[in-house]
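Q: Hi! First time doing this. I have a protein sequence and I read that you can turn it into a structure. Is that right? Here it is:
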Amino acid sequence: MVILLWIVSILAFLALVWLLVLMPRMKTPAKMQELKQWRYAHRGYHNETLPENSLGAFRRAAKEGFGAELDVHLSKDGRLIVHHDESLKRLCGADVNICDLTAEELSYYRLNGTDEPIPHLEQVLAIFENKAPLVIELKTKGGNAPTLCDAVMKQLKSYKGLYCLESFDPRVLLHLKKHYPEVVRGQLSENYFRHNAVLHPVLKFLLHNLLLNFLTKPDFIAFHVLDWQDRSFTLCRRFYGTQVFGWTIRTKEEQALVEDNNGVIIFEQFDPR
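A: Yes, that's right. Below is the predicted 3D structure, encoded as structure tokens:
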């Protein structure tokens, strides 16, 4: 009986620690209420003729009344480049990395065989200012999280539109928490054991289970829709009422799963209306 009580006590203690570790920021900025009213086109509202993260795809999203999700890297000379992959191989056919090229060198590449150039962040901001909000994902390289955060915030300083920032890298959220606490920040995550073959297993466990929330204090969690039932994510959503985003939504069934649970969708390849 004593052993059983010890086991129950230990399990209860571990459950309490788990909940405390998962705790997000409990008082989110007021802008979160407006951000959650929108649907967001993943990498712009792209299609067969408008490549992802292209100016044309972003113009289409704004014209159709959607917000947009986009990805930002730092070029070699410190410019903010909108592109998903670090490498240009998939969309531009060149086996080179954004961080190794200057903005001028990047200007010669075109997306997916079209006339669309690789955009800069300021070009995308100009499309959405005072029209629709943006979910801006910060793509870190090595230890450049602080530099990238500062560059993005400098660019956004005079921006009059609505936005939030997110990243898979918890160092981004830590820097935002310390230096830009007024900004709505989100933790991107997924089941790393299912989707990521690169990271160390310990890091996969920490990131997949959102076990750094107590340090980063996210305002929202953006989770892979195929992993929507994962335990730590479900606890954040149900126990703390954390605002959630679902990505990448490609069917009406996935849309219903997210929106029926008060989530925000980041969609592609279909019209959510």
